[in-house]
Amino acid sequence: MSQAVRVVWDDELISYDFGPGHPLAPVRVELTMALARDLRVLDAVEVVGCVPATDDELALVHERDYIEGVKGVSLNGRPDLRWGLGTPDNPAFAGVHEASALVAGASLEAARAVWTGQAEHAVNVAGGLHHAMPSTASGFCVYNDPAIAIAWLLSQGASRIAYVDVDVHHGDGVQAAFYDDPRVLTISLHESPATLFPGTGFARETGADGTAVNVALPAGCGDAGWLRAFHAVVPPLVREFTPDVLVTQHGCDSHALDPLAHLMLSLDGQRTAYAALHRLAHEAAGGRWVVTGGGGYELVQVVPRAWTHLIAEAAGAPVDPAAETPQSWRDFVKLRTGETAPLTMTDGRDPEFQDIGRGYDPSDAVDRAILAARTAVFPFHGLDPVP
Asked: Which residue numbers delimit the Histone deacetylase domain (predicted)?
């Protein structure tokens, strides 16, 4: 299914580190890459390096004074709340600019590879920092690498980009960057803003010509409801939009074990979504697919397995869900974290769902979220909102 696939990686990407005890611990991406290597998933891709995004590239999304402000914090690690750095979510640290610019550079490298045809799909698991705003850090995010990659693609001549965000938190920063730009379709499936940060992402937020799409799911939603919502909203819109490139953000904090949110997906449900987005890239975007990581705060049990499946799916060589994790990786997990690693690659679930076309239930909170999203934006795209 896939042709050339690149994974962008540099060991310095783990320098994006807010310090001990912070939920966004860089060990999660370190363990991901180690698991992908030990399972030989990386044998099916080309692993390439990256360089930091330049100031001009960062300025595709961020204000120049903000970039200079981040650089100032970077010199000595002193907080500067004007730029949102020095809060519990975004602690200041020396080197924050360089670390953040490298993450952005990795997503730019992925976008370049896909746009120039060097790769059909390209993955940056360290990316997906979707909350950063033009002039402030927010939600563990300093520079908004998915938005920067999208803006760069537009600068190179892309006429339409579809962005699908499956993180449990609303992709507010990417939505804000392109809210009035009809060339960019942003779709976010997330826990309801009534119960989770950042408090945005209601269905009524529709952007330019219905190109901001929000599916706000109730706390407690699991595989069946989440996949029902995904298939009721995402494929019809992306197919109708016919983007030049599909960009996706794969925060795996929708998992039941994640400590910061309240959805109840399994690894099996998540990998099913990865496969659906892979198919959609081929159906609607000529196979051009730029993939980023995102949130995910169960550092051992969830993130490494989820994103190893993501890389394998992009490579066109999915990992058997019944596969055991390699002993070498379990040993590395123990060494790096002191924790006991999971023994198999998924939760052993069968993520079945019923298509919304088989009937709408107005008493069901998931179905109400689906209908709210479809009613808000489907007519803009010539689609019937009624299931």
From this structure: 22-312
pLDDT at residue 1, rounded to an integer: 43
- Residue 215 domain-assigned? yes
Domain with residue 243: its CATH number is 3.40.800.20
Evaluate whether residue 81 is within a structural domain. no
Residue 201 is part of which domain span?
5-51+107-381
Distances (CA, A) of 41 to 6, 203, 309, 351, 361: 12, 38, 9, 23, 41
Instruction: Give, in order, the Cα–Cα distances in Å from 250 to each of 52, 230, 254, 264, 279.
Output: 22, 13, 10, 16, 15
For residue 188, is it within any domain? yes
Specify the number of domains making up the chain: 1
Residue 126 lies in a domain: yes
Helix (H, G, I), strand (E, B) or coil at 199: coil
Please list the active-site residues: 131
Which residues are CB-contacts of 175 (< 8 A; sequence separation ≥ 6)? 186, 188, 200, 201, 205, 207, 212, 214
Show the CA angle centred on residue 128, arms to residues 125 and 133, nearest 5°: 155
Cα atoms found within 13 Å of the Cα of residue 383, Cβ hemisphere only: 21
**pLDDT score for 2:** 53
Instruction: Please list the ranges in the chain whose pLDDT falls under 50.
Output: 1
Q: How many CB atoms lie within 10 A of CB 204?
A: 11
Q: pTM for this one?
A: 0.98
